[in-house]
Design goal:
Layout lengths: L18 E8 L2 E8 L4 E9 L6 H14 L9 E6 L4 E5 L8 H5 L12 E5 L3 E5 L3 H11 L3 E4 H10 L10 E7 L2 E8 L2 E9 L3 H14 L8 E6 L6 H9 L2 E4 L7 E2 L12 H5 L2
Parallel strand pairs: 1-4, 3-14, 4-8, 9-12, 12-13
Antiparallel strand pairs: 1-2, 2-3, 5-7, 6-7, 9-10, 10-11
Helix pairs in contact: 5-6
Length: 280
């Protein structure tokens, strides 16, 4: 099993279309997206949320059921990328990274079992994301598609936002990527990543607390920094309204992809599927 590299998936596809499938896996939901790479059209995009957080074995059972139900997912594809969204990660400077000691980097912020497989993604700016993927799910998709690429969702988030063009790179920008009951917080200043972490929250007060506490620890003034939102959050959400009371400069991330959607695949909010689309 290899991560952070691209592979061609061998299929029996006799069509002229060149399709790529992106899959996002978390313990509380799944998302799938299929892009026709020739026409630049997204022809399938669907999200499946669980009623509660499941363990990886039950998540795999849901994946198997979804593949039985969704005919579109059974079509041949030419390329696959699998994203894991969890908090089982840590960032390490590349010059300090030792693959033989990968588990050692994680032991300070997560419980590691002897059976856990440790993976890593090399990111821009000399960063390595060390994380624990779900091997049963990797094996399932390997059996289905052959070799494919998999990454941690945070890796996609960091690389894409570091390359996102802005007018003023010097001022600190706080990016909050919201998912169900959690969010990733990235801080970029002078074009460099200075902070990245994930937080679980239950209330809007929790949401704001982690954001303001982090800003305070890093001596960032809520009246001066820019807060940029993406993911599963809208202007009418409680979290947004509470942030608006304390932070002066708030915006949503602008256009982030060149694709068009077929009618049946058009999402209500494109930003809610940011990682899935950005990985295509």
């Amino acid at each position: 099993m290899v991560t952070g590299q691209k592979f061609t998936v061998t299929t029996n596809n006799q069509n002229d279309s060149n399709k790529k499938l992106s899959i996002q896996v978390s313990l509380d939901g799944l998302s799938f997206c299929i892009l026709n790479q020739d026409s630049k059209k997204i022809c399938y995009l669907k999200k499946f949320e669980f009623e509660k957080q499941l363990d990886p074995i039950k998540v795999l059972s849901r994946i198997e059921s979804i593949y039985e139900q969704e005919e579109e997912l059974r079509q041949p594809v030419d390329e696959v990328i699998l994203l894991f969204s969890n908090s089982l990660f840590t960032l390490v400077p590349e010059e300090l990274f030792d693959e033989e000691n990968a588990a050692g980097y994680l032991k300070f912020n997560t419980r590691i079992l002897k059976t856990d497989f440790i993976a890593s993604d090399k990111l821009d700016q000399g960063i390595v994301n060390v994380y624990i993927p779900y091997t049963n799910i990797i094996n399932y998709f390997f059996d289905k598609y052959g070799e494919f690429e998999y990454r941690h969702g945070l890796s996609v988030l960091i690389d894409s936002l570091l390359n996102h063009k802005v007018e003023n790179e010097e001022s600190p920008r706080l990016y909050v990527h919201v998912q169900k009951n959690s969010y990733e917080l990235l801080i970029i200043e002078n074009g460099k990543l200075t902070f990245a972490n994930s937080f679980e929250y239950e209330t809007r007060e929790d949401f704001l607390y982690y954001l303001l506490f982090t800003a305070e620890q890093l001596n960032l003034d809520p009246r001066k920094f820019e807060l940029i939102l993406l993911g599963d959050i809208k202007k009418d959400s409680e979290e947004y309204n509470m942030c608006w009371d304390y932070i002066k400069n708030i915006s949503f991330l602008g256009p982030f992809h060149p694709f068009i959607f077929e009618a049946q695949a058009q999402p209500k909010e494109e930003l809610s599927d940011y990682l899935l689309i950005k990985s295509l």
